[in-house]
Amino acid sequence: MDLNDGNCLGSHGSHDVNDKSKDLPLLTRTSPEWGRAVLEFPIPLLIDHAFLEKKAANNALDMLTRWPGEPVPAGWVETMTGVARDEASHLSQVVRLLGRRGGKLARHHKSTYANALRALVRKGGTGEMLDRLLVSALIEARSCERFGVLAEVCEDAELAAFYKALYSSELGHYNVFLRLATKLIDREQVQARWSELLESEARIIKDQPPGIGIHSGTPIRPQG
After folding, report:
1. For residue 183, what are the CA distances in angstroms to 9, 69, 103, 176?
2. What is the pLDDT of residues 43-71, one digit of tens each?
3. What is the Cα–Cα distance from 56 to 62, expressed in whole angstroms?
4. Which of these, 104, 84, 106, lies nearest to 169 by C-alpha position?
5. Residues 6+ apart with CB under 8 A from 122
6. Which domains does the chain have, with CATH numbers?
7. Cis peptide before 44 (omega within 30 of 0)
8. Other beta carbons within 10 Å of 214
9. Helices 157-184 and 125-153 meet at what angle, rounded to 10?
């Protein structure tokens, strides 16, 4: 399996943050108002972001030995190792940013967005692995879209540059998970399930409560 070969579902031609999410297949788009609102609380946002990167690294490590069938598909272990390394590097960067700004990582964290998506994963067989790959791709795609929004509206030069760099990285991970799915599983089956999950993701992100997080709803500003 050549992971650099072939076209991905919903692939795009531009990696420019200025084009941010227009070529991603997401069915809803995040408003600049969300970005401006969460950036008013940079420390809680960075804490949430750190956990997002931690969970993404853990997800790739967990999938490292969960390839479908036998033998192990060529490139599977190397690809998951690479994703885990990238996410751990992002975690390290977020933690450094957090420390320089006087913040500290919390002990616990909950993502209602990611939990709702992972609840859609079917159990057993090819369906489970397909769903795990597609849910991973969806989370990366939404993260990419939101990092694009943050990079565009952020007035803090350091954070804006960081989010811009992350946009490109998350875009690559999104493509990797989709490419794995289409290489390992019948393309028509992948397309049908991808369409279903895109619709579910649109509902889930819309239903997120107000909060300060990469996948949260828009925070409610205090009155007065």
Report:
1. 11, 13, 42, 10
2. 999 999 999 999 999 999 999 998 887 78
3. 10
4. 84
5. 128, 131
6. 32-206 (1.20.1260.10)
7. no
8. 23
9. 160
